[in-house]
Amino acid sequence: MRKGRATPARSKLPLALGSAASNVIALRIRSMPAAYKLQVLQDRIEIASSANDGLIQGVQTLRQLLANTRRVWTMPQIVIEDSPRLAWRGLMLDCSRTFLSLSYLKRTIDRMSFYKLNVLQLHLTDDQGWRIEIKAHPKLTSVGSRFASRFAGERGGYYSQDEIRDLVRYAAERGVTIVPEIEMPGHALAALAAYPELSCTGGPFEIFPFFSGPNIVEDVFCLGNESTFHLLEDVLEEVSALFPGRYIHLGGDECPKTRWKTCPKCQARVRTEGLRDESDLQGYLIGRMGRFLDARHKQVIGWDEVAEGGAAPGATVMIWRGLDAVPALAKAGHDVVLSPTTNCYLDYRQSDLPQEQGEGSKPVPLDKVYSFDPLPNGIGDDVRIHVLGAQAAMWTHYARTDDAVDRQIYPRLVALAEAFWTPRELRHWPEFQQRLEVHCRRLANMGVSLGINFRTDPGVWAAPARSEP
Ligand SMILES: [Zn+2]
Asked: Which of 169, 186, 209, 452 has its CA at a distance of 20 to 30 angstroms from the CA of residue 7?
């Protein structure tokens, strides 16, 4: 029995380690086709799996089955054999635009594990802040994690390498792998504020909160400057050592080419590398970083822009703009992770209610999230094998606190977790709505701040306000 450490029991049920044959929760590693098998019998509970992560999933199912009726804990006698539909079931948190506390990240990992999500992508760098300590280049955090002095009230900060190691260990104990994202070549203003000589113009630059500047900053890494590559390689060297997982996310999205067009160094790079024009520079960067990471047994993943123009061969692609691109990418040999704005962007508004916060011209309501089908009927096996999984995204342009992030994420993340795990034919919206009430009570007990319409108007659960059918 290993119960207790991996999943702190908020039930406060006393569970001691032992080897008795009855009145126990027995965890066993043994070979089996399912991810885990849970048996609740008259005198014992057994959870078996061929892997540790399966045991964690079985324990989480057990926790979900526990019911407290008049102070008595009960559970139905049941046998469950279960496997996930998708191997990659992720959540991306943007801790650059809004620096999220370490304790918030740990609470999020607890909740992810409870809902069997297994990948937490941390968006660690962007225009609004560099959030991870890099020993070789200390100004990335001493300068790059702080807003300009005229924004003194805004929350800056970064995670030390010791904190990252602690977080990685905490996540692994709960069956969650952390994928770090280091943005390049765009969304790099925080790095350029620290090292302006790595830009095309030389700067100087200052870091501003999202609400006071443009969404897309035209100053990006200068790719004609060899020092840019040295810094990025130093960063990826340290990041590779900190995160034991296979994937390193290099961003690659929304990079304007304006500065590269007029930069003599960038234009010289285009000529010496035989590129068509400056739009191929991004592909050159991702390809070069991909080879660097390949030698360290890491796999590059990037937003779908990395597949444009001179696409990096072998890069895994995280698709945010539209799923139409999936078949062609798969046929070109790219693995993909699906995170379309239409179903997976939880920073978008949940409804058309006037008090609703969030981005997007169209809301992403709960039923639309729930109906997401990452593997629709009709896609061929040749495409299917390249779909690693799917991921929720939470950008923090507007959500300025841990609680505000919670209100965007929940309860929609519960619906997405089910869409990632359960085949479409086993999902049923009216039945999910009934279960959601229990989920929301549980989430509230876990200390989650629920979305505004779920706090103020339970009737909205049945009929989310929205602008389209
Ligand atoms: Zn340049």
From this structure: 452
| CATH code, domain carrying 381 | 3.20.20.80
Q: Which of 407, 424, 441 is the last residue of a domain?
A: 424
Residues 127 and 264 both lie in one domain = yes
Asked if 113 and 175 count as a contact pair (C-beta separation under 8 A), the reply is yes
Distance 101 CA to ligand 1 centre (A): 35
Instruction: Match 């822009």 to its residue by tokens.
Output: 305
224 neighbors 269 (Cβ within 8 angstroms): yes
Nearest to 309 by CA among 338, 277, 334, 331: 277
Q: Of 82, 115, 149, which residue constitutes the final position of a domain?
A: 82
Residue 464 lies in a domain: no
**What is the share, in percent, of the chain residues with pLDDT greater than 90?**
75
Greater confidence, 1 or 449?
Answer: 449
Q: Both 155 and 196 in a single domain?
A: yes
The verdict on residue 142 lying in a domain is yes
* 85 CA → ligand 1 middle, Å: 44
Is 126 a domain residue? yes
Question: pTM (2 decimals)?
Answer: 0.93
Place of tokens 């701040």: 449
CB neighbour list of residue 1: distance below 8 Å, 6 or more residues apart: 15, 17, 18, 19, 24, 25, 26, 27
Structural domain span for residue 400 = 88-337+375-424
239 in the same domain as 126: yes
**Angle CA 340–343–345, to nearest 5:** 70
* Catalytic positions, written as ranges: 126, 187, 254
CATH number at residue 32: 3.30.379.10
CA of 221 to the centre of ligand 1 (A): 7
Longest dimension (CA), the chain: 76
Looking at residue 136, its amino acid is A
Distance (angstroms) between ligand 1 centre and the Cα of 430 equals 55
The reply to whether 206 and 74 lie within a common domain is no
- What is the rounded average pLDDT for all residues in the chain? 90
Residue 62, CA atoms < 13 Å, CB-side half-sphere: 27
* Mean pLDDT calculated for residue range 251-279: 96
Instruction: Identify whether residues 233 and 298 lie together within a single domain.
Output: yes
Angstrom distance (rounded) from CA 390 to CA 278: 32
| Predicted confidence (pLDDT) at residue 354 exceeds the cutoff of 80 | no
Contact between 374 and 390 under an 8 Å Cβ cutoff? The reply is yes
Asked whether the predicted pLDDT for residue 225 surpasses 50, the reply is yes
Q: Are 184 and 251 in contact (CB under 8 A)?
A: yes
In a domain, 50, yes or no: yes
Cα–Cα distance list, 100 to 123, 150, 248 (Å): 11, 21, 20
Q: Is the same domain home to 136 and 158? A: yes
For residue 452, the model assigns a pLDDT of: 54
The tokens for 140 are: 């990335």
